[in-house]
## 1
Amino acid sequence: MMPGEHRNLIKGLVFISPWIVGFLAFNLYPLIASIWFSLCDYSVLSQPVFLGVQNYVDLWHDPVFWKALRNTVVFALVAIPLSSFLSIGLAVLLNQPIAGQGIYRTIFFLPSLVPAISLAILWQWMLNGPMGLVNNLVRPFLNIINAVCGSHLQAPDWLNDPNFALGGLILTGLWGTGQAVVIYLAGLQEIPLELYEAAELDGTSAWQRFLHVTLPMLSPVIFFNVLMSIIGALQTFAVPYILTGGGDGPGRSLLFLATYIYQNAFDYWNMGYASALALCLFVLIIALSLVSVRYGEKKVHYSGR
Amino acid sequence: MAKVLIENLYKIYPAEKGRPEKVAVDNANVEIQDREFMVLVGPSGCGKTTTLRMVAGLEEISRGAIYIDGKKINEIPPKDRDIAMVFQNYALYPHMSVYRNMAFGLELRGVPKDEIRRRVDSAARTLGLLEPDNLLERKPKALSGGQRQRVALGRAIVRNPKAFLFDEPLSNLDAKMRVETRTEISRLHRHLDSTMIYVTHDQTEAMTMADRIVVMRHGKIQQIAAPLDLYHQPANLFVAGFIGSPPMNFFNGTLTASRQGTLEFVEKVPAGQTPFRCPLSAETSRRLSSRQDREVILGLRPEHLHPNSLTSGSTLEASVEVVEPMGAETFVYLKTGGHTCICRTTQVEFMDLEGKKLNLGPDLSRAVFFDPQTEAAIPA
């Protein structure tokens, strides 16, 4: 190494040292430590006691873990397609050249600026059974159905009914679609107009153009957004935790893997078990991401080269 | 096969957000004959692409009319005009194979499967998409630019349209590919024997491919003529300068009476410089007699300036600035008393002339004279 290069290296390291310290202290150390703790009985206040794979065996036989896993997967399976369809649809609409386009775009993006905590507190009220705004919208429809069919359907008490709590959370999640809409909008604007014109000359309808031009050209963006959503959905914690007032919902219907990790770590001081859970979640995320990249990317059409 | 008639065509973009109204196409009138290869050429923003897009139906017609085979198509949607278009960026469907890209338009029109197969195979063979490699099952991203453009050509051919429209189809290809594909399209025109309208900003493409050329500028048609007619009898200064490479030489000057009783062109030069003088023939003098003692612009193609000419009439002296040997010919960039000009010669002994003086013999029988006010050519 030349003397100049040596000096440059030191300068460079000094400049990125805050990040390196942060990475070592708050990323790498916890990661390695949690692997070690997952093999121990560790209650934070006492020394960790090595147990071998006992935590993982317990986990395998723990019905609450399976419940949390099931809730997480169901949430991801419903929320991701729903929010994807919604955000692509909104993006296509917001991409139409109409007067006030900028105003509409702003309106749809604004909700995503609300912090998660405020969002959850807001939706506690929106989803309130007797007084919530959501039910005010739902009730007229139920009244019509009841009148026509002679049934006795009631507006649900979203957050207190184990059958509806997950649904309530998914509705809450749709509030933040604006973020994805912005990314889809950017993707839509990248699609060359000539492709639509060629398709028009080929004799396609508007729907066929969406199917044969918009979707394939948008596929890299869809892939990115879905991958990010999968990772986000598996880590769901803050909103359901606050929606339920720091709990896991009626009949543990809003218990997710991240919630269960938190409960074990900070409610039960069972850091060893929490670490084992966290590693399971980590492996799950890595595995799903790899599967998506491996199989999803084949369906992605990158333009250009 | 069709005749395309463009009648009093206007494209006007209304004023918007502080932008003034823009007339992109200004009263265009073109009659494109059945099986004709018509090229629209001009600098960017001249309205050539807008005109083509109005024929395709991708742009609304502000005023005027377009007829295909006598039928007015102003209100007919693009897909029902029975035309096919080839775009600059190929515009292929990225998720479809080459075969499906070509077949898609036919599928949508309900053409039977075996008929589609037959037409696609035939087009693919014509375009060399089967040999040496069969490209039909490949996706566009696995093809080179030239191959993609051939697929785009194929997609147009299988439709068997009344007219083909090309919007700068060679602009995205490298120089070598451009020349190859240019020949390919010319060959295709002979083979398909159909009407083609081709837009380009490249005058070489226009000259080499067209039956006739429409030269446009600022939305207005400047001249419609066969390539060599444009070259030798440009209608105005713009056409003269735009068509031909290197461009025509222009000399400002005055026509004065010479001692022989004919006219003489005297170059206009800054004070202190010596102008060159060229006597005109008796016939040309008669033709330009009304212009005596008035300013004109003399236009002379680079190949009509003969170096070291001993031919009759006067010579003009110029100093050599740059010599560009092209192999078969040499371009010599020169400076006269008041102008710069280019001389194009096949004589190779002019290689080491930079900085020296050279005598040139202008062939005034091939010269074109322009009116400096109207910029129009003075009629023969």
## 2
Amino acid sequence: MNPRNPFPHAPSIGRRQFLRGALAALALPPLETWSAASAPTGARNFVAVGTFLGWHQNAFFPKQTGAGYAMPETLSPLEPHRDAFTVFSGLDHRAANGHAAWSNYLSGVTPNSYSLDQRIADELGQNSRFPSIELTAGSGELPHPMSFTRRGVGLPMIQRPSVLYRRLFVSKSDMARTDYLLRSGRSGLDLLKDDAKRLQAAVSNRDKDRLEEYFESFRAVEKRMERQLNALHEPLPETEYQLPTYDPITPNLQIEAETILYHLMALALETESTRVLTLQLDGLGQVFSLDGRTLGAGYHGLSHHGNDPRMIRDLVTIETAHIHCFAGFLQALKEKKSVRGKTLLEETVVLLGTGTGDASRHSNANLPTLVAGGGFQHGRHIAIDPKQPDAPLLGDLYVTVMQRLGMEVDKFSNASRNLNQIFS
Amino acid sequence: MNRPFCSAWAGLAFVSLGALEAADTQPVPEPIRGMLARHCLDCHDASEKKGDVNLDHETVDWADPAQRDVWIRAFDAVERGLMPPPKKPQPSDSERGAALAYWEQALLKHVKIGGSAPRRLNQREYLSTVRSLFEWPGFVLPVGFPGDGESHGFDTVSDGLPISPAHFEAYRSVALEIADELFPPKKQGAQSQRWEAGPRDMVLSFSAASVWEDALRLVSKSATAFRSCTWPSRIEVKDSGVYRITVDASQFNTPAGRPFSVPMLLEVRARDLTASDRTNVNTFRLLKTIEVRSDAPEHTVFEAELYEGQTVLFRWANAEMNHDAPELADVYRRWFEEDKRFLAAWQKAIFPTGTLRPELTRLRGLNGWEVVRKHWENPGLDLSQATMEAEPTQKILELANSLSGTTSFADALCHFYHERGPAMEVHRLSLEGPLRPAESPRDSLRAKLRQHWVGERQAGESMEAAVNGILRRVLPRAFRRPVSAETIRDYQGLVERHLEAGHSFEEAMHLLVRNVLVSPRFLYHGVEEGSEHLLANRLAYFLTQSPPDERLSGLAAEGRLLKRGELQKEAVRLMPKSHHAAFVQSFVGQWLDTQRLATIMPDPRFKFEDDKIATARKETEMFFTEMLVRNLPMTDFIDPDFTFSTPEFLRAVYGIQAPTGGGSRPDKAMTRIPMERGGRFGGLLGQSAILMATANGVDTQPVIRGVWVLENILGTPPPPPPKNVPALTPDTRGSKSPRELLAAHTKDAACAVCHQRIDPLGLALENYDPVGHWREQWPGAGLAIDPGCVLPDGTVIRGPVDLKAWLVAHIDQFSQCVAEKLLTYGTGRPLNFAEKREVRDLVKRNHEAGNGFRDLLLALVESETFRTP
């Protein structure tokens, strides 16, 4: 395996040429205008990756604790990055069980509530071109949202690499249309305002108050339009990265889609287009062919392995393929430097986990979790005994993550402590 | 263009003047003060101030809303006989009557009917309004469209419907999406392309397909795409048009697999690549059915239309294998009858030790087939139980006749077919085009939407006149009321300036759509006062959740809606006729909280799957509709002689045997079921949906059910619990009975005030478990449930049947509650004192006139409360 190739598991045709494109220098330096003051720790970005069907615990959790543990099977592609991440066992949110509560992953004890990434984006992302970007790979039916706004609205996820690409690297014709829409939209605002004034005159004083909300929202949106219009005329990032001619959106192309999305995620961070990214890895009935072998059942079927060793073997093969792609992402973040002279990995807290502890039993306890980058002291397996009366919660780790990113917070969902001591 | 956007807004701030009234301070008349001193002030003076109520005043300023609120509470408590408490000495009837009469006239002097604040369309109304405006029933909101808050129990009340920047952004982006649909930006010309796909370029989903050398095999004809079909994973047509499709396919047969003697039928369908894989195959358009007769690949070339975003999908339409019940059981039955070894092998796989395998999921996919095959090929396989009559055989067939067979071991049987045939083999697909353009359904829809918006342009008509015509037609519909000449002129100016700047007519219309859909006149209800149009809108959104139709707008324009009786006539016309009606879904879901059912996951021990939840919800909705349509007496809400359910549900949940009706699945058909009055089930309080909505799927909490009954059946919600009191959560699994735990509530005087009203109502319903089954014991401890209790008015009841009888005897209180809920939902405001008095009179009159539910609703529509903005 070529150690220089950050995406060793790329499965299909023509991948080599995308890789060349991805590694080529960018035409323009990242834009300082998008950068906000960085946290004193130097960590400034946040990435969360989550699988819908969990991670098979026995192949994810190391057998030994502390440093120098034997790399478990699923994590084997991460061996070269051993010092760049920490594995956690025994953490969860004490949330309800079942697929329906899956979104406890980033939401905490209450599924479908304000998620970690959105909390971070609301605080750190407001000066970025995109406060946050939500992605998914491998979805074959209704999406399972992973990110939720403060009001508990599940955010739609981008599944097509081509859509993400167009957002990040706006083409000339897209730009002209956006410019037209913003300018013409503005011409209508005066009219709306005049008409709204007439409306105000026709209603009672008490009702005027109520309508004032409309104007407040209106003004906020206007400001946003103005920002967008100004931003359009700033130089935008460019890349030579080439997408395939099709979008790998059928679920059985999940690994291929993941590979491409990780490329684009690294580019998004490098060009400072955003500071917060999430990638959801869905799973349904798709049957994978991996390592030259067609697996014995669909991904979802395998996750209900009922402890059958052959089904577990195939499930772990899929999960190892996910980790291969993830290792490529860490490698890319290690190789890319920010304008501040640090590697992107040092500047990015990367969380990999799930809201499903054990899909075979639909249990959401003991969630496999891993944290990479962010300038933390890594290299260990931290095993937590959830039966201890004061056992830490996954939310405690999230508090540490947020503090690392410079946020002044001491609570997340049902957690009100932190795990700072582990990294010091 | 550096002009800051916002400068134009400077100075456009609106100052709230509030509704300040001059003080109206009156001394409390001596007889009233005397009554208060004798019966109330022991607890409700300035020092005791129980329940935060102080009635010890020499004067009252009736113009002050805060002071009025205290007296309204006092009035309600005295009128309902809750105060003074039953155990305390009571005032005489004349004392009571005099106090109530005095308070009523003082309150009515200042509290006037009316006062709905402007409010935006809620999410449901917004959706139906867009659909109606554009005549576009298929329009759906984008994922992530912001929802609404609830206020006073409904999503129609102004307080719960603020507009936030997030809403505004969402309105803008929907407006853009719609404008793009009507007047799409120019697209580049289509370029012809050619794709090739072999067996390895196709989707393998569950056990639908498998790859063998140069062929991909299909074996099932299940109607669910992901169980039977395959499609190329890297082909997605970008331009709608006619394509040349080439397919190589053959039969695969072996002697072990009952070879096929008739042609195999390979369906080629068009699927949207992004459609859910769970989609029913028949919703994908059939392009061609190919007859495959030979074991050697046959070459078929044909042309068919494919539209933007589509790819082709293959299904073997006359396969023997079918995942779907009951056909799956037939497939097993045929094999079992034919091959004893095969039967024995499946028995062994599903009953490995004589009992049912606890983890059937291990039998999924190829893995499952390998388990079965191992037994099948084992020469020592025990055939002694391999008869059709054996219990395991019957159990397998029973499972195969349910969803559990489809999802667990049917896939294993697929692999038998994959291996031994018969199977359909697909070898190659090629796709070339577009050979020529074709109009997709989306293109036709766009043309229709555009036509609907733009209308017919008269020959020789100037652009100015044409635009004016469009605005005169479109704006009143969008704004749901007549539009002033000034407003028309403004929009005309917008369109014309855009045209003068060199943009096309389509672009100008695009801009118009974008603007109209974010105007406050589109987004808000009733912002202008007192017109018939407001009344037309109110009635239409109340009963249909949609804008007024042509007839209703017409009547409003003619000024006829203000005439007595006219509104009622229209209400009769718009009244829902089935439980699918938006009004039933929305009002019942919110009033009785049955919309909560979508989020409740009953504990597996209740064996209450999704289909039961759906049946429960339908029962309540159909029951409500029947009450309305047949104008049944209000008492039937509580103790009716019918319900709606399926025989299966009645048996499993209510323990009632009902005759099965007709149809293809008689056990699952909803029918009207006659019932004895005065029983455990029947009526709102015995309906599964409501008992489920008032629990959490796992256990019951009497306090929650008690509060719910007070709020939604009696209309007298208790005040929120004091902040400094820790919640008392009875552990119904523990050794103490909930009754003992709840007793703590009534020991503490501060808690007792409310809990002596709440707890009995909840305890009376404890015989119903969290999904509505009847139970005699509390789970866990095994203690017998004692549902008996004393109601706040002193009535002793022995359980839910007595509770129902009490409610029937006090039916006006329930009617008042329902009437207030209906009016709150319909007017977007909680009712004030004056409005509740009006409702009280209507309820009384309706009771005297037969007490029909529909009559009550019609009386409410004619009420001042409904007609006043």
